Records
---
Amino acid sequence: MTPALSLDNISCTFVSKDDRTQRYTAVADTTLHIAPGEFVSVVGPTGCGKSTLLNVAAGLLAPSAGSVKAFGEPLAGVNRRAGYMFQSEALMPWRSALQNVIAGLQFRGMDAREAGRLGQDWLARVGLQGFGDRYPHQLSGGMRKRVALAQTLILDPDIILMDEPFSSLDIQTRQLMENEVLDLWSAKKKAVLFITHDLDEAIAMSDRVVVLSAGPATHPIGEFGIDLARPRDVAEVRGDPRFVDLHRQIWGVLREEVLKGYQQQKARV
Ligand SMILES: Nc1ncnc2c1ncn2[C@@H]1O[C@H](COP(=O)(O)OP(=O)(O)OP(=O)(O)O)[C@@H](O)[C@H]1O
């Protein structure tokens, strides 16, 4: 089957910020394929290159070497088969929740009434019925994330790219949002590339967890199929003995890299 997303032998080298004559290889020779409908999380120590990989998949960053394909088609510019959700707030403060949700449809030229109808439908699906005329500053952090989620999913992308979308939320809100994402995902089964620091979140959500090494020259050092039954409740599944077992196995690979990453961050300060 043709993967929804193929990253083949990707390397990303940047000019060093501290010394323009030096180069820094953030990602080296990384291959990652995601099947249609597959939920894959990538975990790794801080600063290792997770966002760099996601930006490559999004077509926002051209790799220094390697190839990127969406459903077998080489990527030229922005990945139009993908929708994104980033860590930082991407809502437009001057637009209401509804206007934010339908922004992408309007950019695509959809008729205003049809876009409004779909927007209301999506607001209801993410639990924000009746909040369409609120502005982002009138919503809680969790509600703003729901708007951002609706804004991404309303475009019905075949690939969903998420970069630590819930890291700013408190643990309860975060778990609610994670369950909502799983519900929405299971209804449509799109390919997901989910970047996170949080191993519990990665295991609870995914079909597969890929572990990256500490930088420089980050690359995958482990890959684990997550055979926990679905549907899952992200809070309850943490008590499953298989979850505990998988956590122990993956942490056994990740731990050393986290320590290396931490030492490197300290050395930079
Ligand atoms: N445009 C750039 N120019 C120079 N260096 C960069 C650039 N983008 C990223 N880097 C470097 O590449 C490395 C990987 O960064 P990246 O943001 O991908 O890591 P990350 O794993 O997502 O980090 P975090 O876990 O903290 O979010 C870092 O050392 C970063 O400083």
Note: The mean pLDDT is 93.
---
Amino acid sequence: MSVEFESCTHRYRRGPLVLDRLSFAFPAGRTVLLGPNGAGKSTVLALAASALRPSAGSVRFGALDPAVRSQLRSYRRDVGWLPQQVTAVPGMTCREQVAYAGWLKGMARGEAWTGAVPALDRVGLAKKADQQASSLSGGQLRRVGVAQTLVHAARLVLMDEPTAGLDPAQRTAFRRTVERLSEVADVIVSTHQTEDLWEVYDHVVVLAGGTVRFLGTVDAFRALAPPGAAAGREAEAAYAAVLGDGEE
Ligand SMILES: Nc1ncnc2c1ncn2[C@@H]1O[C@H](COP(=O)(O)OP(=O)(O)OP(=O)(O)O)[C@@H](O)[C@H]1O
């Protein structure tokens, strides 16, 4: 089961069209979403999370359509979203913040409180459960954000640039988080970082100008790198080949 866009059009207020009748389905498993600044990645993820509604067309997760009122709550329980900014709730411990997120998604209070522990464990933060969320580093706070999506047993987790601004050690730790997360949910991650695609992801989607320029396996993506691409920089070369000249 995956998120499917059907003839999806989106514009912000009276701005230009960001997406114009976009139709595609994200693959299952671990998918990385690439694209230059302004390509529409955050817009696509926010639409997939039902945080935005398309101006026209539809977004579905399996049989669930978030535009149908009675399906919205189920949709949001199935599809977790980690936006670019994760904020620590002042005065809350990590466990409280994760439980609170579950409660907001409709879980019973006790169920959310109990479920917060394994969710934090899955992102490697069990030991920090009783620490104030505001005392965590940026990378740890994003892992709390991931735990917030896991507490309500999401089947798909969307992450918008989760590694932006993280140092190399935290990026590596986040990679492990994605790997562990993918044992229980499908994962879609938008990023500008291409260096470790092969180790982490199964599929690549490249978006530019609101259209899908590439959708396929990491191996098919890697094969797009021109012969002679520098070792370790094949993904960068493949990305440049997909976008052609003149784009980032
Ligand atoms: N809240 C908003 N109001 C108006 N326009 C917006 C808004 N958010 C995004 N846009 C516009 O929509 C287009 C797509 O932006 P989006 O943030 O989805 O791209 P992106 O691929 O995530 O970019 P980046 O890599 O820089 O984060 C851009 O032209 C952007 O200016």
Note: The pocket of adenosine-5'-triphosphate is lined by residues 12, 15, 18, 35, 37-43 (CB under 6 Å).
---
Amino acid sequence: MSLDFDEFVLAAATADLSEEPDAREHADVIEFRMDLTDEPLAALESYEGELPILATNRAAWEGGEWDGSDEERLEVLAEATEFDAVKAIDVELEAILDGDAESVLGTARDRGVSVVASAHDFEGTPSRGEIASTLTEAAKHADVAKMAVTAESKKDALALLAATEQVTAHGDTVATMAMGDVGSHTRAVAPVYGSKIGYAPVDPAEATAPGQYDLETLSILVSELSS
Ligand SMILES: O=C1C[C@@](O)(C(=O)O)C[C@@H](O)[C@@H]1O
């Protein structure tokens, strides 16, 4: 399967690649959270799973747990693209705009690995217009523009969905979701408005963001609502 994100992609998030067989039934890719494990490159080296990998090495300043320098973090992410199973990487939009990610973006381009440029708001939900401009900016640098917000009201969820529809209608490929309980349903509904990636933990006890559904539930909801 090529990872062009033309169709919705269900990503099973995990820090443990040995869980891949549990994800196969419902997921299209494994989101490997490199920042949540000790030896991520060694884990990629011994990966024998069937699902392609979207590699994420999330910075602490963007809600992740990488505790080394940013330079090293992006270098390790670039090294991950050497593995055939790695078909996409996630790079923080802020690192891209700061100019820190030029090398990893170039490496990904040279190796034919797709790039997801992501932005997170853990405090709340910007206006529809602000979400749309962040997504539009991210889309200039990557194959998929991703934004995760924290919804505190139904109005927040609607702002996210409206921005998703707007930027998709403009022709960009986006992935959107609202974190938290109030926003949970957007994980199932945003794909109706164009969102091309959904995330769910392989192990429901190890959610990688607040408000995630388990893998089977998200898979069922998305296919029911989008068909
Ligand atoms: O950025 C994202 C989206 C996410 O935060 C979510 O809300 O599902 C889950 C993370 O694993 C992933 O890297």
Note: Residues 154-169 form the longest helix (16 residues).
---
Amino acid sequence: MFSTVKDDMSIESTLISKERKNAKFPVEELTNVWDGGKEETELRRKIVKLFEDDPVLKSPPICTMTREERFTKATRKSAYIYRNLIPNNGLHPGSREFEHFSRAMPIENNLLVHMIAFIPCIKSFGSQEQVAKWLPLALNLNIIGAYAQTELGHGSFLRGIETEATFDKKTQEFVINCPKVSSMKWWPGDMGLNANHALVMANLIIDGKEYGMHAFIVQIRDLSTHMPLPGVTVGDIGSKMGFEAIDNGFLYMKNVRIPRENLLNKNSEVKPDGTYVKKASDRLMYGSMVNLRVNLPKSQAIDVLAKACTIAIRYSAVRRQGLLNPGGAEVAVLDYTLQQHKLIPQLATVYATKFAGEGIIKKHQAFLQNMAKGNISDLAEIHALSASFKASVSEQCTEGVEVCRRACGGHGYSQASGLPFLLCKITPSCTYEGENTVLYLQTARYLVKCASKQAADLPESIAFLVQPIQDMKGSITSLDNLIICFKNSAALCVQGVSKKVNEMSNKGLAMHEVWNKSSVQLVKSAKMYVMQYIIGAFVSFVTEVKCSEPIKEILQDLCCLYGLHYINTHSGEFLKLGVLSAHHCTLAEETEIQLLEKLRPNAVGIVDAFDFTDSSMESCLGAYDGNVYERLFDMAKLSPLNKEKVHQESYRHLRPFLLEGRDILEGVKSKN
Ligand SMILES: CCCCCCC/C=C/C(=O)SCCNC(=O)CCNC(=O)[C@H](O)C(C)(C)COP(=O)(O)OP(=O)(O)OC[C@H]1O[C@@H](n2cnc3c(N)ncnc32)[C@H](O)[C@@H]1OP(=O)(O)O
Ligand SMILES: Cc1cc2nc3c(=O)[nH]c(=O)nc-3n(C[C@H](O)[C@H](O)[C@H](O)COP(=O)(O)OP(=O)(O)OC[C@H]3O[C@@H](n4cnc5c(N)ncnc54)[C@H](O)[C@@H]3O)c2cc1C
């Protein structure tokens, strides 16, 4: 319907090729560092190719589909992936190949909560027999489960959850009830339409006594008809800001009966006579959330920011707007220092959070190994670290994606840029798996407790909080000094707020009031604590990684930039704490600007090194060839609104006025 408009060789393609020629480092080697080795890169590419070449997984661009189409296609693809593609290619969970799974997945898929929450919960909360019964069924999609914890009335405050599981000794069943509208489960992914089971978090009640939140497997739909079972009201909660392919659901249960064996009973059990047996700490009930807070940031936030950076930096390298040199040619917007100041620190964030996150995953794995031997002494530390890490990463990456989107000017607002999709995907990561403020407060609670202890009684990673403040020797811009600066700031923040808490409580103020009045500083302490962890982990990585000099230099520059950018955007905090002087801050700002200039020629190479395929980004601005304008035009042509040359509705509603206009104009014409 539309004629083709094409340039023989677009200037934009030429510009991006030049950028690549100017890069001062081997891009492929940086990709290997990012992936964790050459073999990992090869393996990832193999898996990604397997998925991308599969005709069943092809679908039209998201921005041309309705919600219904997006849900339908995502379900069809996910069913195929989990039942055919994965088992047929030996990509079993736990295998090395499976690690690259999230990068290979189509841009929209579902059944993810089934895989990342329902299945892990069976493993962590189920006894051996329960795991043996439920796990194979879940892995084969014979049962599909949601993680049903949040209710209409309560998400953060889990002690406030209202759904009840009352033990009926006579029938040896639990009776599940949502006593009020506010008790209805609300939000769980995959639950509205696809799931036939749910892992329901409910208050256990035996003989009128409440035992708190426990995990129950509840069947919600019939396995042959997929109809909701008696007593179950289930459906999709409606359109959201993003995740439109996913059926986040509501679930109202009235006298739904499940067998006694459906209480997942690794940590606590109800005997046939109603005796309650506690086998492990109540806190392990929260273990599923720690698991997700440790493992989700990579795929749901860090990779998302990496994609946004790829789009915004490639586009900024080909988008020419205005003059730097009066009388010269128009420049790429990436040549403006201010554009570099928006985008290059986001690259630093991607690297910092990725490598810090790998450290947390290792710590968590060590914790799980100890837990298997009955030792959960590190639980409080891993909870505090993972809570603030999830909060900080989701916050930094969400802010970063919005910066990238706005840095693309008007085109960043177009769905065709791929950026609104990424923003809507990442923004709920600040809410799900624990709302960020609530998580920072959890970390602060732990830190304040630690502040009253001796260094010898604290975990090694926390002891600095109560040790003497360290002196910085030399320039603030050295990596060692950045660590000292952030550690000192975290220690002073925690000590400061602990003092405030103690003083207020010594004056007789009730603890809950003390806590509320100190909460602004408590959150600041948790943020500074996790920042010192991230910087420390990034510096360790950069120091230890084996790579060529040019790559090392880029990583060191990104690491320094990450610390300095944070200092420069929060300089008031560092000055207030007395950790930095005005002179330090001036130097930090100047050094940041120098680093931007130094990294600028490598910016396109650095995003190329993330190695996202064009189809994994669905972005007209971020495609490898830089051919942005032709792609934008081609995408516009696909808009469903352009199917007909004349849209019938616009014709119908506007025609009377147009006819009036025609008569007036023709009257004017004939008068003239
Ligand atoms: C394509 C799809 C991708 C996206 C998928 C998205 C999937 C999303 C899933 C979800 O969102 S699932 C729902 C997630 N919900 C939450 O995370 C709820 C957040 N709330 C909580 O974690 C807790 O209720 C709370 C905020 C910690 C409660 O605070 P409260 O002060 O009431 O604590 P208590 O319950 O009394 O706990 C006391 C004690 O326990 C310690 N603790 C709390 N959480 C944990 C934990 N996770 N692990 C270990 N320990 C924990 C807490 O620090 C207290 O310790 P003490 O200070 O008493 O020693
Ligand atoms: C896309 C998406 C997917 C989800 N998937 C699932 C799922 O699969 N399963 C599931 O069970 N849930 C799921 N959820 C729900 C999610 O876990 C909750 O929304 C989340 O835990 C936050 O709880 P809330 O909505 O009750 O927020 P609230 O706690 O009501 O937060 C509202 C405001 O109150 C503030 N606030 C709350 N408590 C405090 C406090 N103590 N001190 C200071 N401020 C406070 C918060 O900071 C926030 O500003 C999902 C949510 C989304 C958006």
Note: The pocket of flavin-adenine dinucleotide (ligand 2) is lined by residues 113, 147-150, 154-156, 187-189, 243, 248, 428, 431-432, 434-435, 437-438, 441 (CB under 6 Å).
